Every structure is written in C-alpha cells, then in structure tokens.
Task: structure prediction
Amino acid sequence: MMKNKRILITDDEPEICRLVQEILEDEGFTIATAYNAKQARKVRHDFKPDLVLLDIWMPGTDGISLLKEWMDSEDAPPAVVMMSGHGSVETAVEAIRYGAYDFLEKPLSTAKLMVTVQRALQNVQLRNENVQLRQQLQPLNELIGDSHGIQQLREQIKLVANTESWVLISGEPGSGKEIAARMIHKFSPRAEAELVTINLAAIPAENIAVQMFGSDKNGLVTAGSFEQAKGGTLLLDEIADMDLGIQAKLIGALRENRFLRVGGNTPVELDVRVIAATTHDLEEEVTAGHFREDLYYRLNVVPIRIPPLREHPEDVSMLIEYYLDYMTRVEHLPARHFSTPSLSVLRQYSWPGNVRELKNLIQRLLILKRGVEVTVEEVQSALGKRTATEVSSEPAPDYNQPLRDARDQFEHSYLLHHLKKVGGNVSELAQIVGMERTHLYRKLKALDINPKNSRKN
Result:
C-alpha cells in the first residue's frame, strides 16, 4: 500500500465520510472530506489530493457534473473513483466515459474499497512517472559547449540560481533562453517544485490575463500559471509581447506579492520566482513606449544574455555530436556521421536560427538518409547553399540609421529570402528561422510582408 497519499472523500452523508476516513487513515493515508460540490472544489484546490472518492447523488451539483467539470478544466484533473448507493451499469459506464478511474457501489466493501484505492493510486503514480520520463527525454536541458562564453554563462546561471532574484534572459530566437531558465530552476532551492512556462507570444492577448492569473466565475475556480507554479518558478517567455494593460496587472501583483483571479475578489498570495525571457531589446521597447519602465526594472534584477551561435562557433561540433547521439538513441533515427568538409561548412555557417536551426537541420539530414556519411553537398542543399561566403557577400547595412530601423531592415530582407526559398510556406519558414508560428505571423505583419506574394505559381 502506498502511504502518505492524499485522498478527498466527497459525500453528502457525514457518517459515510467518517467511516471511510477511519478506514483509510488506519492505512496511513492523509484524508480530507467535503459534503457537497462547493466544498469539494475548495478542498481540491487547497488540499491537492492524489485521489478523490466522489459520491454521485449529492444536493445541488451532482457527482457526475462535478466530474465533467474537473475533467474539462485546464488544470491537471485528479484521479476519481465514483461512489453510489443506487448504482447501475449505465451510470458506471457514464462515469468512466467522463474520466473516472472506477465505480464503487454502496454499502462499501472494505476489501473492495482498499483494492480500488490501491489500483487507482498506482495508476496515478504510473501516469506521473510517464510525465517525468517524457520531461527527461526533452533534448538539451543544459547549455552545451566548451567555449569561454558558454562556460562563463553556466557559472553565472549557477550563481544566480541560488538566490531568489528575478531574472531577465535575453537572446535571439533559438539561442537557448528556455534552456537557461530550466538550468536556473534546476539549481535553485525551488527545484523540487514546478517550473511552469507561459509563452505570451502564442496566446491571444484577450486570454493572457486568465492564463496568468486564473479565473473565478460563479464559484468555478480555474488556477492560472502563477498558482500552478506555487512554490516553484514561472517563466514568462516573450515578455515583450504582453500589452500594457496586462503589464500593469503584473507589476501590481509583483509589487503587492498577491493578485486577484479574473472575475474574483479573493486575494491569492504569490509564491513564485519569476524569470522573464525576450528576443527584444526591452530598453528600446521602454523608450518606444511599448513596455513599462517600472516593470522592466523590477524584472531586470539579474540580466542574462544568451549569445547567438555565431558568437561561439567552436561549440558547433559538440552540439552536432549531442544531437546525433540524442536522435539515434531516443528518436531511433538512423546513425550517420558528418564528413570533415561538411563539419567545416557548418562551423562557418552564421546560424540565424541558432541552436534550434542546428537541431532541425540534423534531424532533417537523419530522416532523409542518403548514406552513412553526411556530405558537403547534402549540407549545402539543406542550408539552401547559404554558406558563410554567400552570407558575407550580401550588401552591407546602412550604419547611419537608428538601430531599430537597421534591425527591421535586416529582418525584412532575411524573412523575404527564406520565404522565397520555401515558396511562401509559413510552416516551413517557422522551422527554418526557429520561431513559433504565432509570433512569426505577427512579425511578418509588422514588417508588412505578405507570404502569398512568395508562393510558387
């Protein structure tokens, strides 16, 4: 029997709650009780049970309705075993169809209760272990490289990790900002709790507040990212994409160390370490009036810059070795090796999509296997023959214009180049440049680029 697990018993008959509680507490479980759906919602949120024993027939909201509500919520639903004194095959099938693990008939048999509870908790443990295994299989959980810059960056991250300071990570798309955030969390005192990531560029502006702060409507509470990360770390990715209204709400939450859910009036205490990440120069965004100055200085307690891959090309070979090993071992792609000339081409390449572009390139070359050795011709074809020589032959930028204009000019030229190469296919473009499609569409719109104009006839 698995001890120290938390079980919530929900039944409108206090005597049944008491009897089941005594049985399960004798077996070493931690028990909470609720007598209706309203209490069950609150206890579930505060107690965070591993398993819920839920009566079907309750006054007000019945057990089936509550089960559907939990299974449809954005939170990870608990394991639920339904109970009923008026059981039927149809009711049991309905409960299991909506996500219940099992169904118990009253009067409860102690032996049946214990076997069902044990199996349900084993199922929960297996589910959690599968989640952990999937997380462990995520590639590149640490910054790879022996260059002086990457070694210094790793040391800086370990020093920062031991503090509670907020961190602002900046860098180009695909350079490794999220990896740096995972490292900070991993080496921090909060490592045992969750690291929750919210990509602000991928969420419609009108939904960001609910995603971050949760909602409270008609007694139905949905936890947002701040609550999900309680005791742990919250990564606000692409912070510059947050509109000024949400920025004001965020600065208020960080200043007061508490916040209100959307539609709610009960303050929720803030217990997270905040890491923000951006591909933009936030000082420029502040000057342009797109980002609040007070929020910038509050987030920018410890700034960390992730260098683009072109600034540490000596690490390209190590990154290639890492991804070759990972993709053959975990993704079961065919083993290949790069010829010396092909490695030379990759080391000289400018990598506008950074490490993400390198990863995608290697994956593509392994999938489209043409032999054990990866040749120069294959590499040049995969890169679109955009070698270091060709990159350097492009017209030099106008150094007399403001930095923001120069950046926009380069991004416009760069994206047009790749759009033509992929025939206007935005999905392929997103892979090449290492950007989320939602963020890429915004970028194309801002630069007045219409992908349709690059489509092949």
